[in-house]
Amino acid sequence: MGLSWSGPERIGADEPSYPYSHWWRHKERRDRRGVDAGLQADVFDIFSRMEKFRTDPAQSTADIVATFPFNTAVPALLDSVALNRTLDPDAVAPTAKPLQIQLAPGDAIMAVIDDGAFFAHERFRMEGGQTRLGWVWMMGAPVAGESESELVCGRELQACEIVELLDAHRTGAGTIDEDSLYRAVGLIDMAADQPQSAAQRMSHGMAVADLLAGPRGPDPAALGRTHLLWVSLPPRVTHDTSGTFIPMFALLAFHALFKRIKALLAKHPGLDVPVIFNMSYGLTAGPKDGTGLLGRYIEAKLGELTEGRRPAQLFVPAGNTRLSQSRARMAANSAEPLYWHLPPDDPTPSFLEIWGPVLPARPKRPGLGVAVTPPGATEALAAPAPEHFDSFADLREPQGGTGEAVMRCYWRWVPGPEAPRDGPTDGMQPDPVPMGPGRECLVLAAERTRPDGPGRGFVRPGRWRILPQARTNDPLDIYVQRDDSLPGYPRRGRQSWLEDHHYRRRDPSGRIVLDDPDRPGPVRREGSFNAIAAGESVSMVAGWRAAADGARLPAAFSAPGREDAAALAEGTPAWPWLTVAGARSGSRVQVRGTSFAAPQAARAALRDAAEASPDTASNV
Question: Which of 46, 95, 187, 546 is deepest in the core (most CB within 10 A)?
């Protein structure tokens, strides 16, 4: 093929250091060929400010809470939504509108972060024209009127506003014209150049919220009411599964929820109200130890909500990746073959991460390396060793081809959650090489295997042999990032996977092998669980299925490695589905997966809290 590595380069000070963001920023600039990228470029420039918390060990969780630009970090521009204000990073946002909720003994707060936000659905309506939803934030909706909002994008609705919208869209028969209502608030816009999840008959978010909400109470004023809060992510963010944007939007969603719930609890200091969060999203690659930006922030804020009251809980699914071959564990410089299979006809890039062991301090230079052997070749191409972290090198075609990079290698240092601070704390620049525990991470970003135009770069599909290199003999963790498309969304990416000569998906009789053998090869089932938020305060929910005799068996897709709770994720072998509410009132759809086990575990936790506190028992 004539491929060769270019010399390593440092990531510029004005560029995002997070590899996914850096890759997409360069890709946008390259593909536009000099055309003004407009707001898109501003999005990735903002990432450079946002992501210093990912790579700077001197930044503590308190710094994330205090200085993260929640009010101006707006990758929602990718959806071309109207902004509530400008992108000035020094702008001061208006005060957040408090939740118009009155808590009573026995009440509970349950919050969901997902897509959709079908606030007009009959599952959330109560007798007397009231609603079970206390607050909704539709991130991808246009701004309502000219009212100034504390939220940087989208539209928020309080319970009273939801009731007014319901009354305004009643038909002569008294039913709610839900489609007309959703178009009026901007939840559906068929003229927009983006996926319209709210226009589908099935919604991931509605299915999760249905299971989370539980049965409706007969009286909205009765004790034991569960107040539901719902943040719907922009459709294109849900559609993107490369790991680039979901953590950022989830961070904005959690920040808005934490801020409002904390203020609400402060108004009712005598009530020990259970607070439950559910986020049924997942990523297959990441540190999986709580050291990511989102994980560190969630741990800090859950701790704040727990002070002086029962612990607030976040439930996330373990993931449907047991058999996805997305995880490997092997020693560096091993002769054991490991292959990264890049599928053909993939219009999106693919990412692979190599994580080193926890080190007591940041080394002076990166110690991880990698050599790749392209499909059909015999010579391994070793990436050049950089002198500094936050560097990258390109695997390029010869000038006779497009001359563009087909693969890029990044070197990162990811600090641990307890990394001590070095240098000044008065806002000045900290020491450039702070000490403290952390891990090295090497990221491979592969171009798409289907070019989207003449002269555009692409990588050859097939089995790329991967040989990790390191200065340590400790095992290395290797993860492939998720790149498939969710049901109901247009097909975007095609999932890559890992292979070795030992992995067997089925036994000789044809049955699926659920567990790794006693002496596995590099590719593992164990440890393939969700990486989006994996701190100690997060409950990872595994899925089980109902056997013909009523026994509970592990679901074949439920990712192993960490199980804090478990719930039903699919039905019986004869009918392997769960029946839940569809996107419109009166409709029912069938689903399966750990995404739907997580809200059931959250409901069970709420029931346990009620039983533990009979004087404040919720009607759950």
Answer: 187
Longest dimension (CA), the chain: 77
Instruction: Confirm if 17 and 54 have CB atoms less than 8 A apart.
Output: yes
Residue 134: count other Cβ atoms within 10 Å of its Cβ.
24
Q: Residue 449 to residues 121, 342, 383, 482: CA-CA distances in angstroms?
A: 42, 8, 21, 16
| CB atoms closer than 10 angstroms to residue 602 | 28
Closest CA to 532 of 450, 476, 435, 598: 598
pLDDT digits (tens, 9 = 90+) for 459-480: 999 999 999 999 888 899 999 9
Rounded Cα–Cα distance for residues 160 and 179 (Å): 20
Residues of the chain short of pLDDT 70, as ranges, are: 1, 28-94, 144-149, 152, 193, 216-224, 239-244, 399-402, 417-436, 485-491, 613-620
Task: Take residue 350 and report the two structure tokens written for it.
Answer: 């693919």
Q: 540 forms bridges with which residues in the sheet?
A: 316
Token pair 């003449």 is found at 454
Bridge-based pairing state of the strands 369-373 and 462-469 = antiparallel
Helical packing angle, 597-612 and 204-213, nearest 10° = 20
**HEC secondary structure over 287-344:** CCCCCCHHHHHHHHHHHHHHCCCCCCEEEEECCCCCCCCCEEEEECCCCCCCEEEECC
Give the Å distances, CA to CA, from 125 to 131, 466, 567, 607. 5, 54, 27, 22
Residues with Cβ within 8 Å of residue 580, at least 6 apart in sequence? 206, 207, 210, 211, 588, 589, 590, 591, 596
Element (H, E) at 565: strand 565-570
pLDDT value for 379: 93
Contact 366, 391 (CB under 8 A): yes
Q: Residue 509 and residue 520: Cα distance in Å, rounded?
A: 19
Query: How far is residue 374's CA from residue 380's CA, in Å, rounded to a whole number?
Result: 8
Chain centroid, CA 78 distance in Å: 16
Q: Give the CA radius of gyration of the chain.
A: 24
* Neighbour tally for 400: CB within 10 Å: 7
Q: Residues, the chain, total? A: 620
Name the residue type at position 558: S
DSSP 190: T
The rounded distance, in Å, linking the Cα atoms of 29 and 36 is 9
